[in-house]
Structures are given as C-alpha cells and as structure tokens.
Amino acid sequence: ISRFNDINPEDIESIEVIRGPAAATLYGTEASNGVIQIITKRGAAGGTRWDLSVRQGAMWFQNAGERVWTNWGVDQLTKDTVSLDIVEQEAAAGRDVWQTGRIQSYNLSLNGGTPTVRYYVAGGMDRDEGIEANNQVRRWNARVNVTAEPRADLDVRASAGYVSGYVSLPLEAGGGGTAWTTFFANPANVRDTLGNELPRRGFHSATPEGYRYAYEDWQEVNRFTGSVEMNHRPTDWLAQRLALGADVTREQNVELVERMDDPRFMVFFTPGEIRGYRSQDQRNISYTSLDYSASATATLRQNLSSQTSVGAQVYRRFIDSASAYGEDFPVRGLRAVTAAAVRRGGNTYVEDVTVGIYAQQQFGWNDRLFLTAGLRADDNSNFGENFDLVYYPKVSASWVVSEEPFFDLPWVSGLKLRAAYGETGQQPLFATSLRSYRVVPGPGDISTITPDNVGNPDLGPERGKEIEMGVDASFLDERVGLEFTYYSKRTEDAILLREIAPSTGFPGRQYFNAGEISNRGVELLVRGTPIRRENVELELSFNLATNENELVDLGIEGLDTVQAGTFVRHVEGYPVGSWWEKRIVGAQFTPAGRVIVGTEVCDDGRGQAVPCTQAPQLFLGRPTPSSEGAFMPALTLWGRLRLAGMVDFKRGHYKLDGNLRVRCVLFLRCRENWFPTEYLDDPAWLAQTQRGGTYVTDLIQDASFTRLRELSATYTLPGEWASRFGASRASISVAGRNLHTWTDYTGMEPEASFLGGSRGGGSAQWEQNVTPQLAQFVTTINLSF
C-alpha cells in the first residue's frame, strides 16, 4: 500500500516539483528523478478559525456485467459447449459479485495565533468500504504545525504528523480471490452430470463468499513524521537554516486462514488451507535527515548581485523486518502463530546512508539575468567497494526578456528564457553490490550456506547528464500562459538487471552498470482564460509530456543484448526493458481448426515469413508511455458555481494481457478454443491459443488510453446562507471520478502495472487478476467558523 496514502489531502497547502538538474545540487543522490515537495498548512495570525470537511460517496465496478468476459466450456449434463456470463448469473440470483462501496471521511482543523506564535492543528478520520465486503479502510490522522518567531532574526518551525490505519484487502493472489474466480469462470462448474448445482456455481475456484470466509488479509500501520526547522538571519546579508526530520513507520502485514469447519466452503480449499495458517510480516521503517544550509548575499556593483550558498545533508534509512509463519490450527478461533502446530520465522534489516555537501553561486544582473553554478559531492553506503565519491555539477541561466528596455511587444505580458545543465545520480538498491550467501540445513541437520546474491563490487550510481531549455511566457494581459521545456538526458552507468549463467553457482540476476541511456522529450503547459466577464469565467489548461527512450550502449564489449526477464530485453538502439518475442504470423490447420504443430511461421524482421524455429525475436513495444498529458476546463458562474473536469491520457506503452493469457491460452475458456473454425481468418491468434503460451505476440498489446478522470461542481453559499449554520463560509462539492475510458487494450485496466519491469523483470508488467479503477461519486461539504 503506497505510503502516499498516509498524507491527508486536507492538510496540504501546496505541492512543488523540482526537476532533476535543479534538485541534484540541493538533494543529491536522493533526487535523481527530481523532488516532490509536499508543503502542509500553517497557521495565520489572528483569531482561531475552525474548518470542518465532511465527505460522503460511493465507489463501484462500473459496467461489470459488460466488462467481465463471457467464458466457454462444456455443460456436464448435456455435454454441449455453452457460454457462461457469471456476473449476469449471480445478479439474477440476487448475489451480486461486487457491492457498491461507501466513501466517508471527516476532517476538523483550527489555525490562528499571534504575530510571534502561529499554529495549525488538525485531525481526521476515513472509513471507506470497498466493492468487496472484506475490503475496508479505517484511518485516523492528526497534525500539529507551529511557527514561532521569538526574535526578528530567528524563526522556528515545528511539525508533527501521526497516522494510524487498518486496511483489509480482499484476496487477489495469482491463484485465488474474487477477481480470479470470476474472470476465469468455468461452465463445467455450474452443474454435475445429474443436473444438480455444484458448490462453485460456475466460478473457477471458490465462490466469492468462500474466499471471504476463508481469507483475511490486512495491513496495520502507525506512522509518525516530525521535523524542526530553524531559520536564522544574524545579519542582513547572511541567512542559515538547520532542519532535522524523522519519519518512523511501523507496518504489519498479515494473511490469516483460520481452521475451517463449514462444509459449504471447505470443499473449495486444499487440506493445508483447511487446517489454517497465519503469515505475518512486520516492518519498522525509519528515515532520519539532517540538513544545514547557509546563504550570503551581496551587491557587488550597482546592478550586480551575488548569492553564495553552501550546505550539507545526511540521510539515513533503516528497515527492520521480522516474519512469522504458523500452520495447522487445532480448532477454529485460534489466530496466533503460537497456536499453530508448525511454526517458523525470520528477521532481516536494511540500512543505508547518504552523506552530501554542496556549494552554489548565483549572480544576478538588474534582477533580469541570473547565472547559477553549483557542485555537490555524495557518498552512499550502497556503492560497491571499488567505488568512491560521486560529484554532481550544475550550471543554469535565466533571462527575463520582457523587463528589458528594448522589449516592446504589447501583446506579450511576460517572457523568460531559461537553460540548465546538470548531473544527477541514483544509488543502487540495498546490498545489491554485495556477494551474499544464505543459511540452509545441511547434512546431519548442521547448518551450512549456499550462494544467494552474486553481487557486483564495481556497482556504482547511475549518472545522468541533462540539458534543459525552456521558455515561460504570458500573453494578452495574462489571459494566456505558456511553459515549454525541452530536455535531453544521457544516463551513464545505468543500473539494469541481467540474467546470470548458472555456471557462476549463483541463482537469479545481477545488477550492473550499463553504458548509456538516452531520454529526451518536451514538457508543455498551456493555460488560458478565453472568457473573463463579471459573471462568467472560463479557464482552460492543457499539459503534455513526451519521452523518447533509447539504450545507446550496454557498455559490455561485443554484447548488444541482455535478457532481463520473461519476454523483456535490454537491446542497444531500443527503449530500455522493452518487449521482445517472436512475432507469429500464420500456421496451417486441420479441417477441425487445430494447428498442425511445426507449421507455424513468424516474421523474420524483414517482412518475410519463415519457420518460427528459425525466426528472431522482434521488438514488440516499450513498457513506459511515450506521451502523457491532461486537458482541464473550468467554468465559474456568478463567482459561486464552479464546474470543472479533467481528461487525461497515456500513450505508447505496451503491456502483457495476463487475463487473456489465462483465459484463452491456459484455461481454454474463450470461444476460439471451442469453435476454432470461426477464427481461421486470424491464424496467428488461433495458433497462439492452442500452443500453450509458446507464442505471445497478441498478448503484448498497446495499452494507450484516454480517461475521463473527473467531473465536478462546487457551489459556495452566500454569506447569509452560511450564517444559518453558524459558519462564516460554506461550500458543497459533488464529483464523479473514473467515469469512462477509451482504449483498444483488451485487458481489464490499461493503467495497472504498466511501469513495472521497465528496468527488467517482465512479469511485473503483466496485468492479471486486478479489478479496474473504480468509478466514484463523492459529495463534500466544507464549513468555516
């Protein structure tokens, strides 16, 4: 579960994004892909102000009856080939597979203070229910932010946040759960040879209520975040800042199957499941940071200013994990690992530290032209033993052209040009550079060791060298705004995965530094207010980001291809971690529509068909989007009613449709499995359905999509109406989210898992056995007192 969910949106004041070159000097190796700064609210001087927010809504699996596939199989009574629409069948019987979930949250905050001490105090509660009865969220959060200015030259900011939560999850494992048993429903499981209804009622494995009876999966979390920041200005030309931060999380993940005693459900499960088990993992995660910076400003000449900055940071991450497992409970009702007949456990820890120092110099000319140069040095505990410090330089320039005396374009309100060059880096994962062994039982029950991780003593950080050029402009008296950035980044020593030869004696894969990866593209934001009148204002916003990715050089002499996972390769001249497989184009079939094994032909890469045994693997697509963006209109009427929407899109990425693979290739539940002669006009796909996963060309698909993400309406009540509730301000909002998706992708959710495995590890890119993004309708009431 993403820890971003621990942050209460009601506490957020603003979110800032710092791009790679700018972030590298300030944050170093921790900021290789840029920095997202989430700034929480702080109090304002004045009387105490209370804000209450109440949110109520619903979520549901939109059009489940149309989206869940109709499966084919044999009716055991008639021996006929029949279809089964399991969602329709269950709805007709009054047993909807998925329910409508409830969304609710309550948040209360107060802020105020004096010019010397200001405060923000808030608390909130979420109680959400998902589309399955055993999917719930119970979350409580609190935050206190205090700002004190005891002297004119000193201010102190303290922040503390706490969240305690419980999330129960429905089982969605690779071989079980409601989605699994529904998506792959089997007509042979509807009734027996005598016509009696079978316990499974057509579901593939257990019924949904059977999984709810048997499995409990949940996560408990307690998380504290705190920081103290002191800003000191001893002179009018010198300022310094010291910040200390801590982020401590206690996370517990549990899967529990109690011993079963209900014959209605025991029939679905294995003897091991019937006897019960508990698997429990506990992680104590702590991040601590120390950050010091100082800046000195000076006026060197009448029109020339200088700012010199120096700083240092220390980041430490520590994860202590403990696991316990017990199986075979004597009776139902026992839930602890210690109550199981067979028990085992383990403990591991992860610790890494980054230490960095930096210096930065900026010159400003007439407050219009700014030149900046900086240098940072970092060391990280995950660097290989043969690797030392890493250095990140940066230079940048910006010019506010519209403030120059010669600038005279009346329709241009503002114009700034900017350019930057910077180097960034990303450290290896914990212990990936170290050769390690694991303990296993040996002869005579004496412990021994066996190879585990091959390691790489030369493993160092990725080194990114990026150039950015851009323009920020506004037109027609600020009615139109434009931000445009072109970037070109060359990543040297990129950290990739490769399979290793069994002859090394070590299993699995090895992390290594590849030669060079190229990324380039544009980022565009256009904002406009085409209508601005007394009672009507229309705002339009569009953003677009593109990316061209290429593995330029593997850095291994004589080698241009590295296998990184199932159907995933790193190949010079192509995007990193792309899909590669033989592209089947045809085959010969018997009159009954069955493929004649050995007659399959594949694309030879030059437009010719050759026997698949002689065909090369071909590039089938990249795993990450080549472009993404959003269009956001907003209409405000009479200064009180605001109508807004958002349509976003991602394009150019490919995924493996695991649902199609399981249904048609493994379980043979598709119509083409039973009526193959109807599909002879698509011999490539028909051959894939009959060859047990030997060829997967049509499973790897373009997962581009466009989604109607949100439509909302917010009405701010007149003051006299709000006063009836004792409030100084009141508003009500209604919003619908994830309302429609346009895509040619045949899977359930084109947005699920598409980023997985972009550096290798192909199964992470398989979308299988997941429910789609849920449609939501939410009403929110905000009151201020």
Question: Can you give me a brief rundown of this structure?
Answer:
The protein is built from 11 helices and 41 strands. It has 785 residues and is mainly β.
- Indicate the radius of gyration in whole angstroms: 30 Å
Number of helices: 11
Proportion in β-strands: over 45%
Number of strand elements: 41
Helix percent band: under 10%
Secondary-structure blueprint of this entry?
Elements: E1 12-18, H1 20-27, E2 35-40, E3 46-60, H2 64-67, E4 71-74, E5 81-84, H3 86-92, E6 101-113, E7 117-129, E8 136-151, E9 154-169, H4 178-183, H5 208-214, E10 215-235, E11 238-257, H6 263-266, H7 271-275, E12 277-301, E13 304-327, E14 342-365, E15 369-380, E16 390-400, E17 412-426, E18 436-441, E19 447-453, E20 462-475, E21 480-492, E22 495-499, E23 509-513, E24 516-532, E25 536-546, E26 548-553, E27 561-565, E28 568-571, E29 578-581, E30 584-586, E31 601-603, E32 609-611, E33 618-621, E34 627-637, E35 641-651, E36 654-657, H8 658-666, H9 671-674, H10 683-690, E37 700-702, E38 705-716, H11 719-723, E39 729-743, E40 766-767, E41 775-784
Parallel strand pairs: 36-40
Antiparallel strand pairs: 1-2, 3-6, 3-41, 4-5, 6-7, 7-8, 8-9, 9-10, 10-11, 11-12, 12-13, 13-14, 14-15, 15-16, 16-17, 17-20, 18-19, 20-21, 21-24, 22-23, 24-25, 24-26, 25-34, 27-28, 28-29, 29-33, 30-31, 31-32, 34-35, 35-38, 36-37, 38-39, 39-41
Features:
785 residues, mainly beta, 22-stranded antiparallel beta barrel, 11 helices, 54% strand, globular
